[in-house]
Amino acid sequence: MSRTFLYARVSTSDQTTDNQLLEVQQAGFAVDPRRLVTETVSGSTQASERKGFQKLLEKMEGGDTLIVTKLDRLGRNAMDVRSTIEKLSEEGIRVHCLALGGVDLTSAAGKMTMQVLCAVAEFERDLLIERTHAGLERAKNEGKKLGRPEAVDTTKAVQAAKVRGLTQSQAAKELDLGIATIKRHWNKA
Fold first, then answer.
1. Catalytic residue among 11, 42, 48, 169
2. Residue 22: which H helix or E strand, with range?
3. Coil, strand or helix: which one is 89?
4. What percentage of the chain exceeds 70 in pLDDT?
5. pLDDT tens, position by position, 18-36
6. Catalytic: 2?
């Protein structure tokens, strides 16, 4: 017998899943509260590393249906979403996304939709890389120094403070350096 589950996620504790639950009800789904998993976890965390999502996977079995309101509830990027849906599909679990018209993402049409979305995401990523490289090249041509600034060698100043009899804390305060920097240079010869 097919069961319906709902996964609702928000990123921060000042947000609620109320809108997602309402959207599912308005779409005509009645989800048993025991089959509802909500969690507050950043979207940058992969689905496979989310505790609530792991609990959901433990409850589900082949023939079940998972509902999400939007694809970004399932993963941090298109590739993560795709791998999550593929894993669920391998288990015989259908995935419905309300934002995509309730399409079953494990069906032939759903797989095609996912392939298009992944292709668009890859295209956007490639454009971002191209723009970044173009910006770096332009900055280089303008004579701007790229990368991390060179570290200032503070060994001599630290050694001079040590010779004057200052403590490490006093040297850090006088030289306006962190204590870790002072300690790193303190015993250098």
1. 11
2. helix 18-26
3. helix
4. 98
5. 999 999 889 888 888 899 9
6. no
